[in-house]
Structures are given as structure tokens and as C-alpha cells.
Amino acid sequence: MEKTAWHTLTLRECMRRLDARESGLDAGQISARRAEHGDNELPRGRRRPLVSILLAQFSDLMIWVLMAAAALSALMREPVDTAIIMFVVIVNAVLGAVQESKAEHALEALNKMTAPTAKVIRGGAVHKIPAREVTVGDIAVLEAGDSVPADIRLIECHSLKAEESALTGESVPVEKLCVDLSDAAAPLGDRLNMVYMGTAVTYGRATGVVCEVGMSTEMGSIAGQLALSGRETTPLQRKLNQISRALSVGVLCVAAVIFGISVLMKGWGSIQDSFLLAVSLAVAAIPEGMVAVVTIVLAMGTRRMAAKGAVIRRLPAVETLGSTQVICSDKTGTLTQNRMTVREIFSADEDILRGAMLHCNDAALGGGGVTVGDPTETALLDYLLDKNYIKADNIRGRVRAGEIPFESERKLSTVAVRTDGGIRVFVKGAPDTLFSRCTAGDIRAAAEANERMANSALRVLAFAYKDVARANFNDVAGTESGLTFCGLAGMYDPARPEAKAAVAACREAGIVPVMITGDHKATAVAIAGELGILGDGRRAVTGQELSQMSDGELEKEVAHIGVYARVAPEHKTRIVSAWRKKGKTVAMTGDGVNDAPALKAADIGVGMGIAGTDVSKSVSDMVLTDDNFATIVSAAGEGRRIFDNIHKTVRFLLSSNAGEVIAILAATLLNWNLLAAIHILWVNLVTDSFPALALGVEPAESDIMTREPRDQKVPFFTGREWGRILTVGAFEALLTLGAYLLVGGGVLGTTMAFLTLSLSQLFAAVGFQSERSSVFNLKLREHPFLWLSFFGSAALQVSVVLIPPLRDIFRLAPLDWLNWMQVIALCLCMLLFIEIQKWAAKAERKFISGGFYEKRTHRL
């Protein structure tokens, strides 16, 4: 079906064809049209059904190898081995499917939190609705900062400009006009009476009628090119994928060696057992589930952040947050309350001043008795209400005899009210301007008070009045002259109560806080001083001073500047670039259309959920639902916690796998029948998955916000950490071999080795709960999931030995109390070994930071 060239139709014809009217659609029309045209969204990768996810688990090569091993066991008439292998395969598939489904649910929930919105006129009133609910014939309301929700024919526009690079490639915003066009073949960029889905309003405002939605839009026509190619993976996930693949190759080589040696030493009659052992070891030791666990930890972390007011829009932001070194924050609304407050009054006549503050004021009472309007005017009413100088009825009962609205050229606004003797004229405005219009009152004292307030970073308004019999509001100059000065009000936007503690937490965590504002330098410095942002030799500069610096000069000076005042949005990009050139990880806040380049340039772009435009939120990595600086700091701490947990989880998995490989390789070389295939598979099932997930949701360690930020250039595991992983694995293998040898081998030795290998991994998980703090500092009640996984997995493991039918299936021997004590003692040795490792690592850190290496560096 040929598309309608809406841009060539007259507005009247458009409205007729769409059966639309400027008052908007009614409820019946909305339902019918949404049923006909569907949701206004482009198709996304749909969430797969659980059955599909479950079947996908069987596409893994190692699962096929394991199933081949089960088939071989069946052919060799080993029903027990066949049943156990298939049980492990099915349980692994179910666990994998559940984990993947939960991760998809979590990511889907986050997408809903950041869904775009649109403003439409329906039933004669403006409504803000999810953009997906916009339908054909809706009357859309567009303002600067809005994302265009659909293809729209403009009805009325005022200085409207739209950024259409996503469709046309044109980077310069296009001016839109409400004109009739005739060229049906005109390219999108020349259709000046239309705006299109996926573009953004950069200036002005407009209304328009929705012509096309969803896949019928111009953006829908090229949806195949713009559609998401799959789930986003983070740099950390890609790095772990590389580690996993490299380790998989190594483990497969070791498994092949074990198979070959076993056959050579035990003869061709052992080929089935040797093959099963090698395959089981490969399945158990290859960390194929490592990335899945990391994905779940990241997804759960984003949900925790969302609950605290930080909605993550892009998954890589979670790990980047943990290494944030600089936070560049707007002042107004983020560090301050964005609500002006009267701090000081200077009055020649308080009664008359209060009258001026009440009447020469366009603010009003909104829902719940909250004042609404211009921030300076709401501040005046809030002051009068808080001091009980007026009641709500005084505000509602105001009646004006006339007014002269504020104009920037005059810097004054005037209101007249009737009195018993005639008319009283109240005038409000800039002090210097108002002083020149006054012929009575102590102007000299008022000027001194104004200067004192201004030097204290207060925004000052002056008030004056005069009583007249009649007023001629057409004579503006005459009405606003011959005044009597009555007072000054000094106002400021106070800092958020929690901001000072958040800034202090920043500094303690090694994060540099930077204030950026369009406000005056004196005001910015006052707030920065109150919050503790300035200090350590850092200073404030203005946008004008910044413009005079070259990029090289800014890069040298950026670490010594804590406050940027009177800056333009384009300055933010330079500030971000200067910090990044110094190798720092930078978070930048922004709420306006022009902030988008800086938000993109930063490592973490932080959008404002309340004050932010759709454009600024759409390019952000994280959106604050409360526009609060403290939430950024909290999110940085959460990012550190998530990275810590991923690090300890992966370390636990790799050390456990290393222990299994080393133990089986050593036993094969010694020609010991240490463990059978079913033992390895069971250990992998019981003691890998549950403790790993438990470590992934551990609470933050007490010192997490007193450490320096993690340098992103440092590899996920350093050489020393790889060494610690291997030594833990080697010690685990040594304990397993020791347990076998302790009772002279045989079936009893296998039972001892089986229990020691599995339980020592559980004790290791407890040790890995913290990579820095001793296990003896563990607070039991703070780690419910760790204890649940520990005791649950231990119960499953022990039941295999204690329950005779299970013991027979696994070909194990009963243990006496001495054997049990020996197993427990060996497992405690594992915990002690990890504690010694922590102690050594802590001593090394102290030595490097405060000892020989530091002194040597100073000498150099």
C-alpha cells in the first residue's frame, strides 16, 4: 500500500483524512485507533519463552559431549552412570534457563522504567502518556528537549527547530514552518511542515497532528537498519568471555591428556571410564556458566540501583560506575534544592513590605497547599506563610486593580491594589533600578544592605510603593516613579541537606567532586564552600575565563578547578575532555538539550529524571529519579559493590575448577582411582552454582567507599591474583589427594576425596566472602544467602554419603566419626589457607603504599 504524502496535503485535508480535531481524541476514538494501528513502537527483540530458553541450553558443545557420554554408558549397560549424567544435564539446563529468564525479566523491567513519554491533547486537556500509547489523530504538544514520538504534521509552531540527523544525516537542526508544500518527492530534510519519530526538538514549541505511528513511520521504514542487533554486553562480560574461551581450550587439552594417560596406564579395558572421567572433568572445569552468573549479578545490581533512585539505561554503566574518579555535577537541583528561600530581610516598614511581597507576586497555591510559580516569587510566599504573617486565604483572596508585567528592559514589575483611601502601587525589581525610582526612604542604608547581601551570594529583590488616588497604567514611567522604598529580600537556593555528606563521602572514596553552574561566581563559591567542594588549593573560574584557556591549558589546570560558574553547555564537553585526557573516569550530569554532547562524551552520562529533557535522558547512561547528587555517590558505591562481588565470584569459580583439574591430573599420573565421572559432575552441580550466586549478592564491605577508585586500565585479574587463584586450586587438590591417601585409597579413599573436594569449595566460598577482611570479622546475620548456599549445598553433599541408596548409586563407602572429623579438619585448613593469603596480600599492600617502594619513588 502506497504511503500518504502527508506533507503535500493542506492542514485542513490532513485533519479531515485523520478525522482529527484540535481538542484531541475522545476515549472511544483512542481505543478504536489503538486497536487498528497497534502500539506506537518499533519491534524490539522479543523476550523468548521459557521453553525456547530451555531448549537453547542444549546447544552448548559440552552438553552434547556429555549426552554422548550418557549414550555410551547406556550402550555399555551402565544405567546408574547414564541416569546420573542425564540428571546433571537436565538440572544444569533448568538452572541455566531459570537464570537466563530472570536476567531477561530484569532487563525488560529496566527498559520499562526508562520508556519515553509524550504530551498529547485529549478531551481538550494536555496529558503526559507513554509514547507507545500515542495513536493516529492525536494532537501532540512539542517543546524544546522533547523527543518526537511519531510522524507529525505541524498545526502551529513557534520558532521550532528539530535535530533530524538520525533520519537525514544532517547534524544542524532544521527550522520548521507551518506551510503547505507540493513536492511529493521532497526528501525528508525538506519537508518543513513535518517532524518525525526518532528526531528531537532543540528549540521552540509546536502542536501537530499524528499521521503515522509505529512501523508506519519513516523511522519504521528503516527499522531493520536501526533495530538492536541483540542484548548489549559489557566490556567486563566480553573480557570474561575471552578468559572463559582461553580456559576452555586449556581444560580440553588437559582432559585429552588425562584420557590418553589413563588409557595407557590402565589398558584399553578402561576406555569407557577414562572417557567419562575426561568428559566430566571438562564439563566441570570449563567455566561456561561464569558469564551467565555475571549477567545475573549485573541485572540484580541494576534493580537495586533503580530502587535507590538511579535507573541504569546501559548495562556497561554498572561496572564503569565502580571506577568513577570525577563527578561533574550541576549545582541547581542536584547539589541544591532548586527552591529559592528567603534568607535575609531589610525593611524600612515591615507591614508594607509584607504587603508588597504578597501582592506584587504571581505565584499561587497549588495542590496540597504548596506554592507554585516562579522560584523567587514562591520563596516570598513561603517566607510569609512560614512566619505566619499571612494565611492561605490571603493568597487566594488577592484582587488587583491593575498591573504592569515584568520586562527585562525595565527589570521591574508593578501591581496595584485598592485601599480605603484609593490605590496603592507596589513595585518590585532589581535593587539598583528600583533605587533610582525612589524619592523617599533611606536609600543609602538600603544600598549598603544590598551590597552586603550580594557579597553573601544572595539574590536580592527590592520593593517600593506609593499611594495614589488614581493610576494610569499606560504611563509606565509615571506609575513607576516617585516611589517610597520599603525593603529588600535576600534569597538563595539552599544546599540539599544530604549533599554535604555526599561530597565528604566522595572525597573519602577518592572521587573528585566538581560543580558546574550557570549561576554567578559568588553564589557558586558560597554553595561550594558550604558543601566542602572547594579546598586543597582548588579554585573557581567563570565561563569567560574558561573560554580564554586553550585545551592544553585547561588540561593542565583542570585538576586545580573545583567550581565552574556562568558556563555555557558547550563548556561542559571541554571540561569532560580535559579530565579524560588525564586518564580519569568521568561522570557528568545534564538536563538540557545542549547538554547531550557532554553526556555522550563522559564515561557516565547522568540524566535528570525530574528536570531533564527527553533528549538528555535518552543519551544518558543513568537517569536519576530524584535529581540528587547523593544518589550519584550512592550509585558509585553500588557499582563498586557489584564489581567486588563479580571479582570474588569469578575468583571462586576459577580456583574451584583449578582444584578439580589439578587433583584429577595428579591422580591420573599416580594411577589412583581418585574420583569417577559421576563424582565430578555432582561436585560441579552442587558446589559451584549456588555459592557463586550467593557471592554475587553479598552486601558491600565496610571499607568500600574508603578505597581509591579502581583504575580501568588494570586487568580484571593481575598476575598476582592469577597466582593466588592457582595456589588456592593447588591447595584444594592437595587436600583432596591427602584425604584419599589418609585412609589408604580404595572406595573409602574416594569417599574421603569426594567429600573433601566438595566441602573445601564451600569453605573456600566463605573465605572468598571478602577479599580483604578476615572471615573472623564476619557478621553472621548480614550474609543470609551465603549461609543458605553453604548449608544447603553441604546438606546435599553429605546426604549422598549418609543415605544408603544414594551412597550405593555413587559407589561410596560409609564413614565413621573419625573420618568425618578428618574431612572437617581438612576443609578448615582450606579456610585457614585463604586467611593466610589475605594476610599476606594486606601486608604486601601496606609495604607498597607506605614502605620501601614509596620511599624509592620519592628519591626518584
Summarize the structure.
This protein is an alpha/beta fold and 860 residues long. 51% of the residues lie in helices and 16% in strands.
Describe what you observe in this structure.
With 860 residues, the chain is α/β, with parallel strands linked by helices. An 8-stranded mixed β-sheet has the order 8-24-23-22-9-19-21-20, with helices on both faces. Strands 1, 2, 3, 4, 5, 6 and 7 form a 7-stranded antiparallel β-sheet that branches. Helix 4 runs antiparallel to helix 5, helix 4 packs antiparallel against helix 10 and helix 33 runs parallel beside helix 34.
Reconstruct the topology from this structure.
Blueprint: H1 11-18, H2 27-37, H3 50-56, H4 61-75, H5 79-113, E1 117-122, E2 125-130, E3 139-143, E4 151-163, H6 165-168, E5 174-175, E6 194-195, E7 200-212, H7 218-221, H8 223-226, H9 235-266, H10 271-285, H11 290-307, E8 310-312, H12 316-321, E9 326-330, E10 341-347, H13 350-359, E11 364-365, E12 371-372, H14 375-386, H15 392-396, E13 402-407, E14 412-419, E15 422-429, H16 431-435, E16 438-440, H17 443-455, E17 459-468, H18 476-479, E18 483-492, H19 499-508, E19 512-516, H20 521-531, E20 539-542, H21 543-547, H22 551-557, E21 561-565, H23 569-581, E22 586-590, H24 596-601, E23 604-608, H25 614-618, E24 622-624, H26 629-669, H27 677-687, H28 689-696, H29 719-742, H30 746-767, H31 784-802, H32 804-809, H33 817-850, H34 852-859
Parallel strand pairs: 9-19, 9-22, 16-18, 19-21, 20-21, 22-23, 23-24
Antiparallel strand pairs: 1-2, 1-3, 3-7, 4-5, 4-6, 4-7, 8-24, 10-18, 11-12, 13-14, 14-15, 15-17, 17-18
